[in-house]
# Entry
Amino acid sequence: MEPIVIALPRGRILREVMDVVRRAGVEPEPAFDDPASRRLRFDTNLPRVSIVRVRSFDVATFVAFGGAQLGVAGNDVLTEFQYPEVYAPLDMGVGKCRLVVAEPAELGAHDDPSRWSHVRVATKYPSIARRHFAARGVQAECIHLHGAMELAPALGLCRRIVDLVSTGATLRANGLVEIEHIADVTSRLAVNRAALKTRSREIGEWIQRFREASHAD
Amino acid sequence: MNESPPRSLLPSGLRDALPPEAGAEARAVGRLLEVFHANAYERVDPPLVEFERSLLDGPGEAVSPQTFRLMDPVSQRMMGLRTDITPQVARIAATRLAQAPRPLRLSYAGHVLRVRGSQLRPERQFVQVGAELVGAPAPGADVEAVVLAAEALGAVGINDVSVDLSLPTLVPAICREIGLAEDEARRARVALDRKDPAALSGLGEETRTLLTALLEAAGPATDAIGRLKVLPFLDRTRRMCDELQQTVERVAAAAPGLNLTVDPVEFRGMEYQTGVSFTVFTPRVHSEIGRGGRYELDTGESATGFTLFMDALARALPAPEPERLVYVPFGAPSEASTRLRADGWRTLQGLSAVDDDMAEARRLRCGHVLRDDAPVEVS
# Structure
């Protein structure tokens, strides 16, 4: 049997995701939980099943190319790339947050969005931001940042940001308010299309396994 | 500083095919065409460029943004470079070969060009090889197309083909039957396209249940058909599913070794398909290597066919047999090399006398050297 590679996102939601992965019966080797380990690829208790730990945006890319057959990525990431080769057959119900437009509190008071012809935003999601604003006839100029978007308005890069919010504490701490809701975000099981088609039964069983593990709590 | 790029730099997505890959691809194209020929498909060869209007009308419309255009200085009309050969073959079948007896079997091979590659598939130019079967009813012709694709791929050594059968007209028909509003139908299509049942939220309970069940029906052919049969379809969509089932059963009977899957909601890139369609995969590469399906000519005549993509297919080809290349030293009688070639050898003729034939053969990467009328292995 061909190997299975599962791509998991580093960072914030990994702990929640690992709960589901473990319930699905996949237990990585001890080095996986060792913060000092520099390794990127880990064996598991299952022969031929390994886990790679990458940036959340890169999960989509590894799965799209078929380097990983399975992965866990938020629908924010999947929508940003819109890779035709990635399916998202399962909402794992973890990593809940939302994608919003935010701006400094004082700006909202005298702003009329219906008069905009263009808007400049700092974001990790240039493609989602462009599509979102284009849908109402506004052209978005995106400043592509990879983190700390909340700094951009204070330091004069732009006045608005498009970013993920879970509790809203980071926005508040930086004097920003949410003005528009773009999408609700949760983690999805991402599946490579060719793998699902050519190893239909096996990959189908994996989806089922993750489905049961996601609904177990 | 304004340095011009080196001469070797090509525009993105374009490449020089070199030995041995160029030869291997050309031989594979030849072999595929031979299989089509043996199955009574006649070769056609439309031009690379034609008037934009005839290229992009009807089925070609979807690829309009991917089409390079150029102005014809002679007619002063806009021309387009083909991104797909099928619409050209459909045009030929509907016009110049309108009187030819049906069913009409045509095959083709040629380069196509598109404006943009993607990160996953950067090639902007590649070769398509395909066969079209015009004026033949479903499901017989659909079965022939799938089986022919598998036979042709087997002939180039790709024996682990997996075919995913789908029905791109099913989801739009269901949306109409249950009376979804246009924006709901669009949302449903996006969700189904990514196989994301969570994105169906917001649609009515009944709709969501049916579409989720449809999503979960996809899989190995026998399981999928079993799951499809018990879904609560209305008359029209029920008939469509029955047709899909018949095709699946007949393909399975005609090509028992074929790995068959069914995906009732797949429709991406099949916008001009009007019936059973299919996508061809092999586990050797992480992408599809061909696709096909039923469509209509602009005369209303029904046709089916398929196209194989040589950029992806070439990566799946098995490693070529070692070459039987023999060095023929300068001055050897020409009958000797003629005889060798007749026996299947490739002969490399020395153009001047050299001190050491063996060393020269090795330098030119010949496996053998001609000595006293017979090839001797290079040591």
Observations:
- The mean pLDDT of chain A is 93.
- The domain at 97-183 of chain A is CATH 3.40.190.10 (D-Maltodextrin-Binding Protein; domain 2).
- Chain A has two domains: 4-95+186-214, 97-183.
